[in-house]
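Question (not urgent): is this output format expected?
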Amino acid sequence: MKKTIPVLISLMFVVAGYTQQQRTVSGKVSDGKTPLENVDVSILEKDLTVATDADGKYRIAAQTGDKLQFSYTGMKTITIRVEDVTRILNPVMVPDITELAEVVVVKSKRQSQKELEEDYVTNTNIIKTAYGFLDSQKAPGRIRMVQKNQILAAAVCILDFMRNRFAGINVIGNCQEGGSVTIRGVNSLFSDSTAIFDVDGQIFVDAPIWLDLGNIERMAVLSNFATTTAYGNLGTGGVVVINTIAGNIQSGNLVDRARLRNNYLTGKVLTQKDVDKNSPIYLRELKQSTSFEASKELFELHESSYASSPYFYLDAHAHFDEKWNQANYADQIISDNYTLFENNPVLLKALAYHYEERGRIEMANEIYKEVFILRPNYVQSYMDMANSYRDIGSPKQAASIYARYGYLIEEGFLSADTIGFGPIMEREYNNLLTLNKNEVVRGQKANKLFIAEEDFKGTRLVFEWNDSEAEFNLQFVNPDNQYYTWKHSLADNSEIVYREKDLGYSVTEYLMDGSLPGTWTVNVNYLGNKSLTPTYLKATVYYNYGDRAQRKETKVYKLHLKNVNQQLFKIQSSGTTSTN
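Got this back:
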């Protein structure tokens, strides 16, 4: 992050390396129905491989940070990072099928210009040219892409950078007098042609030595006829396409993707009442109890059978706090059984979610501190701590954590992410400064504080989950009953899941600008978390985001029913959240 806070609280945390905890990871590998025998389970970059037995079971010694790879002929290879809490992994492998576009696919997978435009913000393989959008992974011929974090700060101008960055490119000239670029191998009949530059849709024959390299969002080199033909004779020597930050016209708003497809929701969607019918017996009995004393008797009756289950105590805590408003009794349940939660960041985050939902923000803050100590290398820890301090009315402490995060990114102690987590963190920080700058920086310095103009105002949805192994599909249904599904699974979106595990975050956001008023519904289909434990999903809905009237609601959902579509909540045009 580039924002600077004049008053910076002393650095609060020290980032430590992953503790190399040796443990045995075990589990069962299946295809979703039957166990798979002889699956190779190996640790990448280590000479250690085991095979699953006839029941699909395996055991392997691993350390935190190791990457387990599951390989089987005819199935997609799965890679899973070992975390501090990883003990059991039950991966489900899916067939590795290459479909023939002309034979199998009914609808073309080629994206329209509209779809490419909407994907531009999140897909760094897409470049915007003067004649439309190109996806470097799907376009005909090779396109060489460079992202902003790959641009060398030491380069003085575009000529310097291209001279040192691209093979097969001849650069003539310097940053004072200008020059030209020749791409070898482009249209050999016109070998004397030099490349042109497409900067935010404007064509330049001379190299744009005036361009600030720090303002480049992404860059591409087009070096074949198929991708340069739109430029006519000017493009015979190749084209260098540059998209700048300032020239990026994307608003960041979530477009209603449901309207881009002919997707109409059909089939049963479970309500919360339906889900409750499939809850454990003890929870169903607690919810049917008619008094606080009756609930206490039931809790004590079942405790001997579930004394080793932290999920039993989480359910009991939520029940007594929500149904009977007995916060002290609920807290005592957790306190008496805290050994089941301590040193386990996954369970601690579930507990923090419960406190947040009930408005117990001070207690949630204490839990997030524990998680931060356990996971200082997870980027999510910084967002959780900053938001928690903001909740308890300490925006200055929140700002110091954002600043610390930015410092660690710049120094290379944490990895930057311009696709998933990075934009979310930027939005959180900028929103804090927009609404709380006078509490962060006082006096005249507040007026001098640079704050980027809020690029979105409307309803913002933020989803977080406590277990990074969780796989699920989020479904957004618009007022016309059309839906868009975000798939969070190794089978459908492995790159996203791998990035989350490598950097340490479990969060995504969706922005709704109100272009389609009415009632929206958000559903979830839980696919599991590679163990037989539930996952807790926290949904935070921000209304009037970026405005002084901004407010938020937090709901927590225990996901335990697998492979069924269940309703989470509805968003009314009036700005309220309702659940069924």
